[in-house]
Hints:
Layout (H helix, E strand, L loop, with lengths): L10 E2 L7 E4 L2 E5 L5 E4 L25 H4 L11 E5 L13 E5 L13 E5 L9 H12 L7 E4 L14 E2 L3 E2 H16 L9 E6 L1 H12 L6 E5 L10 H7 L5 H5 L3 H7 L6 E7 L6 H13 L3 E7 L6 H15 L7
Parallel strand pairs: 7-8, 7-11, 11-12, 12-13, 13-14
Antiparallel strand pairs: 1-4, 2-3, 3-4, 5-6, 6-8, 9-10
Protein name: Esterase
Organism: Cryobacterium glucosi
Amino acid sequence: MGNGFTPRRRWIAAGAAGLVLLVATVVLTVSVATGLAQPDQAVPALSLPDRPAPPAPGVDDSSPLSATWRPPAGLPAQGTIGSVRIPATASGFSARDAEVYLPPAALVPDAPALPFVLMMMGQPGDPDAGPIASVLDAFAAAHNGLAPIVLVADQLGDPDVDSLCLDTAEYGRVETYLEEDVLAWARGNLNIEAGRESWTVAGFSNGGQCALSLALRYPEVWGSLIDASGTVYAGLETEPEVLADVFGGDQAAYDATKPATLLGRSRYPDTTAVFTVGSEDSVMEPGLKDLSGTARAAGVAVTYYEVPGEGHSFEALGGGLTEAFGVLASRLGLG
């Protein structure tokens, strides 16, 4: 399907398989399944800025960051993206390199600790920070350089395989990779705030389902959720095969992993969720709208937003993320 959302590093094109375009000397190859064209060049390795010393004992840091932050001279106009290799120490999962987005406020001396977002993209796809970086650069421009630090992790390993965002014998310990290995790396390497109220898990399409599932299984970790055009449960498109191959035909075990089941058996009174979808996305919209209502009934503070005139596209992702960070700005202490 065609897309027109153009991140800084990714170019979107529509057309048949095998079509090649030359734009600014970068070769682009089109994927029919997603309409996403990806340049041949690799994302450079992330150069992490020095982490400032923690606040001195007795210093009151309870005020929202937006109330205390004063942008210094020389604040960059845009953030930066870099790739990182995250050791799969606990999981052994064979993940591709992640990408990190650092907003302008993270790039100055004595930078403040910032809210943290873990993001997953769709399937097939790759851990591309370009789309969310474009949205957050615009957010930062309106908020004195402040925006969350984002880590876009690989929940697939193989882009042609839906790993289900679970620990399975078939696809590896994906859940452990995301909740243990990725978060251990983030805590040890990124200048991020520590409390769950500052942590958001987000995803698009397949990644949206993954984000929702993690938010529901680990509410002590994630205070906020962004589910952009997400599938309503893992393996939806290949359910008979998933039921047979992963769960050995045990329907109850499969159902126990689904977000609707989790929402039906637990309450989430201090979780904020933004569900977004293209208004013309006839595949995702009905289920996601119903699921947002189920989340509201379970105590989640829900915002449901349809991106006007969009289908299952990066335009829908961009519009959804823009709405979501507008909703979450105050909760994250950024506006």
